[in-house]
Amino acid sequence: MASRGDRNHIKNAQFAVLTAQTVFSTGFLAVGGLFATISESGAWLGTLLGALGGLAVAGLCSLVVQMHPGKNLSGIADAVLPKAISKLVSLSYAAYCVWLLAAGTRQFILAIWIPFLQTASPLTLAILVAAVTLYGANLGIEAIARASIVFFPVVVLSILVLAGLSVPVAAPGRLLPAVGVGVPELLRTSLLASSFGAECIVMMAFVAHTNEPEGVGRAVAWGVLVGMVMMAAVVAIDTVVLGSRAVTRVIFPVLEVAKLVGFGEFLERSEVLLLSVWFCAALLKQATVFHASARSIADTLGLKNPKLALVPLGASLVVASLYPTTVVAVLEWVRAFLRYTIWYALGLPLTLLVASMLRRPERAHQGEGRSR
User: Fold this and answer.
1) Global confidence as pTM
2) CA separation for the pair 224, 342 (Å, rounded)
3) What DSSP element (H or E) covers 336?
4) Residues near 45 by Cβ (< 8 Å), separated by ≥ 6?
5) Which segments within the chain are labelled E, that is strand?
6) Tens digits of per-residue pLDDT, 331-369?
7) Angle, helix 327-371 to helix 183-197, in steps of 10 degrees
8) pLDDT in tens, 1-36
9) Which of 38, 73, 93, 143 could cross-link to 139 by cystine, CB 3.0-4.6 Å?
10) Distance (Å, whole) CA 101 – CA 327
């Protein structure tokens, strides 16, 4: 368990906010169009139902953490798996985090570059984003958590403001029928959406730094629920303002909504203000995931200081965030992430849970042998 004086010591309230921020930020930009192509008016409900998959991942992680208090993912894997397999698990977790980092960074670079900075070099933007992300990760998880618990309520407020501004032009009937084009499509949407909730698995890298390990599972579950409700709200706003068909014809529907509703003559280009708020939240999320990936790589390679992995990881992030080169390919990349990573996020804690349960009788038997 982390000591009181540990600079990386975080509370469960911060843990919940970090989880919500990880689940919501970056993914909400394009989610409306991605899901509307499948279930049309039912995209918001499918997104909301996707919280169930995230809660399942949170539940499995909670069970594993309760069996191994004071250990993060790499420590748990080392305790219950053969050394070679444990290293493979840590590397796969790092690869998941890098894919998540690259996908999120690429989406936000496009969100900034396409409407505002087309004269700027994408490489320059990638370097700047990677540098800020690396700086945040270098500060440590406690610093990120403190900033997040102050700033994330501003993100929540920005979504509420967007919803309020949308009322005059909203057509609530566009949310019906709630199941969209059919139940199979709704279930398919919810399965894809669950990959966003499953991003809570990133928190497994930091469970050793909480002072309340018994409440970690509850904190992560609340974070998943809040993040997915916010994402469903964004999809609903996109739909009532633009319509389910128009949503599919734009890259980032929430930005189009922000341009359309705005503050009138009081504040022109209000989407810039909202995007700046969302961009800051995304950077905090990226710093969190970056730190988790660096810690996992350091544990795998036996590095005593995780910061040694930051610079090489930052360089790889710059390269990865430049590809794919077309918007269509980027969206396909995001779809691939949503399609496959839910199974990884479910399988990893389940594997650790089963291995932990199998090791318990073995340890009990060893204890009996010593007592004799």
Assistant:
1) 0.91
2) 14
3) helix 327-371
4) 39, 178, 179, 180, 186, 232
5) none
6) 888 899 999 999 999 999 999 999 999 886 555 444 444
7) 60
8) 334 444 457 889 999 999 999 999 988 999 999 999
9) 143
10) 17
